[in-house]
Amino acid sequence: MSALLLEGKVVVVTGAGRGVGRGIALECAAQGARVVVNDLGGGPSGGGGDPALAESVVAEISAAGGEAVADAHSVADWDAAQRLVQRAMDTWGRIDGVVNNAGILSDAIFHKMGVEQFQAVLAVNLLGPFYVSRAAAPHLRERGSGAFVHMTSTSGLIGNLGQANYAASKLGLVGLSKSIAIDMARAGVRSNCIAPFAWTRLVGTIPEETPEQKRRVEGLKRLVPERVAPFTAALLSDGAKDVTGQVFGVRNNEIILFSQPRPIRIAHTAEGWTPETVVERVLPMMRADFHPLQKSGDVFGWDPV
């Protein structure tokens, strides 16, 4: 019988009371990790709180013979994030991995989106991963090993209607992950992103007012949240110690590696450019390589495997 992939490790999973996060917490525990199950227990847009959600996942892990503790701190608060990470240190004296999964939605068409809607989503989805990762970083650096896994979204990587706040936070998270990977490489600490395709309570807020929206929702309902967990656990393991700075996707039984921005066309001139010559020469030369204005459903148009 092979050894468990995460035997002896301590992993913090945020937003682990339901959906994708719950599946990850259970899988990490099944692979031998001791898990801090973090969940504020708030609603899809961030309001309210219910610590019983995290406690119920801890009970599941304990019933299966694993070790876990519950934590209900908000990731959107610097001091609370410090206490979340300290919970792992106080309980087990170490931390080996962080999964930044907690997130909220507050959708609106851009020209109708309020400042509060934008700031609230960024606070949880982007500032939260920074706070928790920053709190864990000194401990991982001291150990000379460790891994971060951040949950991004095709809303940021590709685009979706009415999600300017969510898309900005999730694409910003990709930049944060790459910076962590670069800055902490010498310390042996890795950082990667996963875009999870899953039917969760957040995805369940997508409207079903048009035939196109209804078809999209029916397709999304076939995406199982727990299918994201095995790949996440693999990235946290020593078996992925050379994998960092990457952006992946998990869509049921499909594992996807996403491209990252690189130059594809370059225009130059010895004389320098004027607005007129840009319009006359540069834009026509590059137009064939422009990306079409697509949404994630346009790119992933096939049924999940």
Structure description:
The chain has 305 residues and is of the alpha/beta class. The protein has one domain: NAD(P)-binding Rossmann-like Domain (Rossmann fold), CATH 3.40.50. It is built from 10 helices and 8 strands. It has an 8-stranded mixed sheet with strand order 3-2-1-4-5-6-7-8, with helices on both faces. Strand 7 and strand 8 form a beta hairpin.
A few lines on this structure:
The protein has 305 residues and is α/β, with parallel strands linked by helices.
Features of the shown structure:
alpha/beta; 41% helix; eight-stranded mixed sheet; 305 residues; 10 helices; 14% strand
> Topology as H/E string?
EHEHEHEHEHHEHHEEHH
Q: What Rg, in angstroms, do the CA atoms define? A: 20 Å
| CATH class category | Alpha Beta
What's the CATH architecture name?
3-Layer(aba) Sandwich
Q: In DSSP terms, counting alpha (H) and pi (I) runs of 4 or more, how many helices?
A: 10
Structural class call reads alpha/beta
CATH topology tier name: Rossmann fold
Placed side by side, the strands forming the largest sheet appear as 3-2-1-4-5-6-7-8
Number of domains: 1
Net shape: globular
The tally of strands reads 8
Name the beta content range.
5-15%
Q: What's the average pLDDT? A: 93
